[in-house]
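= Tokenised fold =
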Amino acid sequence: MTLPYATMPGDLDHLIADDHVVVDRLFEHLEAGRGDRRMLVDQVSYGRALHAHAEEEVLYPALAEIGAAADAEEGRAEHQALKRLLVLLDHADPGSREFERALNKLIGGVRHHIEKEEREFLPALRRAVGAEEMGRLGERYLAAKRSGPARSHPTVPPTGRRRRLMHVAAGFMDKVRDRVSGRSNVLSTDASWLLDTQAQRILDTWSRLVLAPYELLTLEQARQQPSLADAAMEILQQDGRPTDPEEVGSAADITVPGPGGDLVVRVYKPLGQAGDPVPVVMWVHGGGWILFTNDDYDASCRALVTRTGAIVVSPEYRKAPEYVFPAAHEDVLATYRWLRTNATGLGGDPSRIAIGGEGVGANMAAATCGQLKQASEPLPVAQVLVCPLTTTAQYGASMRDAADARPLNRPLLSWMMMHAFRGVTDSLKDPRVDLLPLSAQGLAGLPPTLIVTTDRDVLQSQGDEWCARLEAAGVRATSVRYGAVMHDFFGLAAVLDKAAQAQEEVALHLRQAFGEASAAHAVDGGPMRKPKVIG
């Protein structure tokens, strides 16, 4: 099911639909016999408990207020039946007759509930209250999920003061039970068994480090959580391996003038740099416009320095929601323009500058190229887009197939956009961020582009489509897809072989653009309509 109308990322119906897609994808893993059944059901149970609590606190009272009290009571009754099944699943062993019977009933019941909500309840509510109120209800829905109990409690009254008191007590006990049982350790990992062994270990380790799934946290809490880079460090320590960062000549922060004041820019230089100017790569880190810093993407930049011999420059752009769109895009563009003027002073060659990034960093890198083209300014000699966001729409098959993936699942993407475009939701269609609608004429003449995607990433389809549209516009565009790894994998080469392969692929593309690759590879590196798939 999908909603038959447009929504904004923070709207109540948008958030509920995201939850629906995730739980149905988890059900599909269970039905296909893949993944860890206990872990998958634990994730279903956790998600359903929070979802049901939030709907009972927000959706059903809102339905009652518009005269749909009967619908609200129907929803509550269905929740009670589903909660009882979840309690059975919590106590039964996977594979047992009791477990499998309860699971089959749960799958059927939840899917019926989803269809009813998406066909009737949610459209009726939107018609009655309007888009603005759906946004306010969405904020309340997320707050209710954060305060809800982590397990289902069918004996708790559906309304009233007694319900609130019992839920507080149940929530405390749930946290204790989850900590003792270890269930809290698996709630942010990928339970599908669709990742390779190394990638799975990274996510399992990360899941044990974080407080809760990111999309259930406040922005302040999320900014304090470990990243995948921290999980990689934990693995290196567990294995007794060196944890020192990859050696480069130097890494230092400088300040450059930006449109909102001075910007911090980190400059990495290669070992033994002397004599002739070297190429330069401007690399833009990810984080959904709201999270992470250059420290979290330090390994990516060091790898590029080592493998290309280039200087790497990475801007620390302004973050939303403190600085909403287009602040970050403006900072990245300003840094590139500064770099063209000042590359020589860094020891770089201003005629050999490339640009790239990861996630929304890739979005800003691509947007920078488009803005330079529109202004008739010199373009980078190449661009690299790793796991790029190229549209703000929930685009393509991967938005469903990887809806449950980690670290970036579909609800987290909506949560990030809700914060990143708070108060400026009309900017979601701005051509600097929503790239896919750009015309072939607008794309023609862009620099040779390498796009790196993974098959467990909600952004995979839009990355592939961007490559196809660049190629149709006559741009030399190449797509490489890495199988069985996740979004944000690129900087994890110390613990993930496919990240090391991707870094070599990216370096080869850049060296080719810098004039250092062989003529044979220059022919090999031409357009590819279908992505090369690795592993």
In short: The radius of gyration is 24 Å. Residues 516-529 have pLDDT under 50 and may be disordered. The chain has 18 helices and nine strands.
